[in-house]
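Notes from the pairing session

We agreed to fold both candidates in a single pass and log them together. This is the raw record for the first candidate, unedited. Please don't reformat it; downstream parsing expects exactly this layout.

Candidate A
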Amino acid sequence: MSDIPQCPGCASDYAYDDGLQFVCPECGHEWSKAPDAAVEEAATVRDAHGNPLADGDSVTVIKDLRVKGASSVVKVGTKVKNIRLVEGDHDIDCRIDGIGAMKLKSQFVKKA
């Protein structure tokens, strides 16, 4: 019996070992061989300077950010309090005074 797990994407038994990862030929899904602890460590959200962020932290914007669909701009130095970390491309969910609810990328903030 093979020690290669089923594909987490489609549950196929035809996954194969490709060096540092497993690959499913049926759906094209690729996943790491690393243990779950290493995956969780890689999944931590970090600011522009590499500091880990957590729910409830305060951050400062390090670059002028245009707000899509509006003529306003989030200026450099704007302090954002009580952030929430979420999954996805924009990994910070927050509320900015004068603008409202927004999603930010962690690469444009630093921990305050």
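Candidate B (folded immediately after A)
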Amino acid sequence: MSAPHPSRTLERLRRRVLAPFFDRLGYDLVPAAPDWSHRPTSPREVELLLRFAAESLERDLASSGIATALDVHAATRQFWALIPTAPVRQRRGGSGFNGALQLYVAMRALAPATVIESGVFRGLTTWVIRQACPDATIHCHDPDLSNLHYRDPRAHYSTADWSTADWSRLDPAKTVAFFDDHVSQARRVVEARCLGLNRLLFDDDAAGHRIHAHGGPAHPTIAMIETLRDASRHAAAEPIRWQRNGRSFEQAIDDPLAREAAAGIAHAHAFDDLHRATGYSPARLTYVSVHPPVPTASGRAA
């Protein structure tokens, strides 16, 4: 199954009339085709792409400390066959081929019984999670579900923040939380740790010197938390500052939430972006394992 193509008449109109008009206004008018609709078709090139991607993913799983018997090469081939059937055809925002592949392989390797997804957008990642974990219970949280192009018939949807839900029946050992919600990643680590969740996946984990290139990223990100921890030891250290679309942003060095998150993180590994392996847009997936929560005098986790 491939993405629908515009008619020749519409494509000619786009190139000759509409595109030049929008160009004068400072906008690009491009077909709304997902990046995976562009792909090699000769067997040798397909084999090279899949082999390079699988080898990179194997290294990332090992570096993340994820013990698995998953045949990553076979899983990568399965994803290559699956992704053209995706019901979500997004070009702007959301995950592209690389991000979806990483999520698919990571979920296959982690094999959770329950997945908490915070940040759903059009539903592509929900579809990817379902393909990877067909029997999992999926909880989808997003403040605006009106953008959905795919709604999983067996998932549980809510517009409330995931942290406000009742998770008293949750088995943390069999759960993976995936955050792509543009909320402080430090906050999400602290919230997850309080619930005893120790297997977390984050999208849009940008380092401080690269965060300006990402649209609306949460901060501090996982990558920034380590930088902030080191910088806080120096009294003269400046905040992390950047500009995007004419707006100025700042992340304070002495951030109590970042310090709390840093203390809770047992290990964090940012996956390779896969661009060199596949040629598709870089992905930004990070796996985080978390220390068990520390019980307080009242018996509650802290």
